[in-house]
Write the structure tokens for this entry.
Amino acid sequence: MTALLFLLPLLFHQLPDAVCTVTTIGDQTVLEGQSVTVPCHYTPQYSLNVKYWCQGTMREFCSSLARTDNPESAPLAKGKVTIVDDPSQNIFSVTMRDLKESDTGWYWCAVEVGGMWNVDSTASIYITVIHGMTVVNSMVTGQEGGSVSVQCQYSEKHRESEKRWCRSGYISSCKTTDSNGTFSSRSLLISDDRESIITITMMNLEMRDAGWYLCGSGQQQVSVHVLVTPRPTTTPSITTEHPSVLKSEDSKSRAFWHPALMVCGALLLLLTAVLVPWRIREKCKREPEKRAVDATKAKPMVCLIWKHIIGIESWRTRQITQKIGGMVDIPCHYDMKYRQHNKYWCYDARGAFNYCKILAYGNTTRERVTVIDSPAQSLFTVTMSDLQSGDTGMYWCVVEIGGHLEPDDKEQFYITVKSDPDLSVMHSSVSGHEGGMVSVNCLYSSNYQKKKKQWCRSKDWSCYTVGRTKTSQNSSVQISEAGTGSFSVNISELKKSDAGWYWCKTETLQIPVHLFVSDAIPVSTSVTRETDKYLMTTIYSTVTTPKNTNDTNKSKREQDNRHRKMLDWLLLAAILGLLLILLSFVACILKKKHKDNKMETRERSSNSAVQKTPAENIITYCTVTNIKPQSAPTQQNTVTYSCLATANKNTTLSQAYEDVIYHSEVKESHHIKHN
């Protein structure tokens, strides 16, 4: 019985919660500086009770921020909290404004029940205030030719920052707001209200505009997917002309010259599509005529484009394997104009450059990474020591360009660290004397036994392949298999210009090797004196350095150059010939069409002038004169018929006599005598 008495207060303690249920929405995440409104629902019997909003981990000890009976009694709210009760709807709402990160925590919607044994009915919600950006709708859809709008919200700390809109994966496509918080172009409008919302409107949508975009400010950005749907299909209107309007001559001429132009154009395109890529391929695959190539000279832009399109010697991502606990040196070449720019080495295990972690800047050492910049050689070198399996991932050599519209210049590497690397070298750095010889052994695993092996120079990507010898390649570089699991590279007649970075390569794997060439050994003369008891002879021996005899190779190179120039001229002549044929076809067609039009005009004018006149349409012109007698006795009457002429009206005459009129006169006289 005593135990039951102790349980009764607990039962009464829970009774209000069972009778008066207060509910609210789920947990909320709000950007710093923005507002949030929370609805709190309650049962009808408590419509007249006091409602309040409090903050705290436990409801029994939470701090009241606003009450419906006395809004001024909550000094902790500092005017940022508003509570409004609507008994007719059985709901009261709480609005919190200008939130800070420190406002993150538990909050309670509460209805004051009253009484010693009654506990207020409450519902909890956790509000998180973050610093960053969010998007109202992460997926929007627009119709081709129309427009679409995206609203991105940002926290208080980003109010004065410039806002940007970028296509994901294309940093150079970023458009940023100006000092007024706007950006405007024919197809894009960005507007920042300088409070918490940036509005992006994409206009004149095209199908290619579909994809992922980034809405960003400072280091914060959110992803938005834009979907573009095609225009609705419409039934095309058909205009019918009367057959008499069509000209049979035009259809005949069109039937003649349309196929001719199509055939000629197809031949020209076919010739261009075959010969031009072939010439570019030959030019880009051609090894340098000298191994000493000036570091400031770069390959033509057309070769770089060709490499990325066709894939000739294209190493978009260099893959390097290294042994656990080992060290790797990586050369990073850059353009001379970037000598004064910052360089750095960064890493991201997922391969996302936008989120890579900078491990070290130029001429600094940070933990196990050292970056040394050599502006005189347009090169900086990255050294990573004590490699571990956790270091596997994507790395970038980066030259910092600056600005949102111009991306940083970078080169990509994927480094795999494991106990047994698939490609390695005996020595990552070798040295020799000018005029001497060096050897490099490249080791590979059994998986690459039948793969192509190469030795390539880093700065110009000129390569030598095992089992392939070209006359254009320098004969002083010899590459061959050195047994199972290795191939060797021998470089003789070393020059100072041979110094630099090279790569052992098999398929996609590569490993860097540095070659250092020192000064030649100076010429010396030694005198040896041999003495015999019967004969004393003085022998002079001289040690000289080997001579370079490359006259034969030079003449071959000159002959190859002449052949290549001849092929270039033949290609140009063929293209010009096809153009002349095409122009001739067009000229003949235009001339024929002009002549046909002239004949047609002449025939129409002749038909309109020539008309047949009936034979009965004859007009007779006549003059009749009566002469009266002069005296009575003379009984004579004279009648004269004259000027009788006939002519046919509208009679068509020949061209030679069309201006001549023929006429005739008939005269007759009668004399009557009286007896």
User: Anything to note?
Assistant: The longest strand covers residues 638-648. The longest helix spans residues 551-609. The helical segments are 2-19, 248-285, 301-310, 551-609. The two ends are 194 Å apart (CA to CA).
